[in-house]
Amino acid sequence: MNSRDTVLIAPAELADRIRAGGPLAILDVRWRLDVPDGRPAYLDGHIPGAVYVSLDDELTDHSTTGRGRHPLPSGDKLQEALRSWGVREGVPVVVYDDWNRAGSGRAWWVLTAAGLSDVRILDGGWAAWVASGGAVETGAVDPQPGNVTVPQRDLYAGSRPTLTAEQAGAGDVALLDARAPERYSGDSETVDPVGGHIPGAKNLPFATLLTADGTFLDDAGLARMLSERGIDPAVPVGAYCGSGVTATVVIAALAAAGHEAALFPGSWSEWSSEPGRPVARGVEA
């Protein structure tokens, strides 16, 4: 199996797996910045058997302070959530969303950082499923409790590399900022109190890594985007965004092409909350 097939799954393959009836956990992670609660949309229609997952409530631990707007959940809380979603040991997991792979990217990163080895993002998300003629189910799914165990208790030191604020600003990694250009430049900051970016970071808006139909760029397309920014994926690469959600789309795109990148989980919301940290504005050359 190539790198792309370990990260992504096409609607046709998912439909075949559902028809085959083998063990499979499907998680619906609809979320967007302006509509964080995706449950109403889920209830209106979802992939058969899919369980709704709240990014804000279950893939985030708001009791953690000092780590940005979407702190990572603890291993204990994640294990409890995974079992409530019906995730079982050794059973493949498919995650999907309905907005630019943000929700599914976050779920994929969190679950793989927790040690789950077979987690894939539905390429193209909900729109691709519907466009392919996939079956649709309404109402809530109440799964049998799962039994999965999360070996890492601190996802900040889990199975995927992370960066602290100090490491993100040290200049030792090629740093990518996944936010929209106007937020990166500081020209229009509508979410966090300070506009701008971490000095040295190059802007790679996460949505530019998707094609018009919401699927991930192929390897050549990704390589072109990196080359335009002077990024060599063979050297250490890190990514951040506003609060550690959409940067996971960048990391998933790199992983699909066979490259590993580190996440700064607290991202700009953590960086900009500390007075005295340097802030760059405009576009990095």
TrEMBL record:
SUPFAM superfamilies per the UniProt record, alphabetical: Rhodanese/Cell cycle control phosphatase
Ranges of residues in domain Rhodanese: 20-138, 169-280
GO molecular function ontology, one term from the record: thiosulfate-cyanide sulfurtransferase activity
Record's keyword annotation contains Transferase: yes
A Pfam short name: Rhodanese
Keyword annotations: Repeat, Transferase
Protein name listed in UniProt: Sulfurtransferase
Organism from which the protein derives: Mycobacterium asiaticum
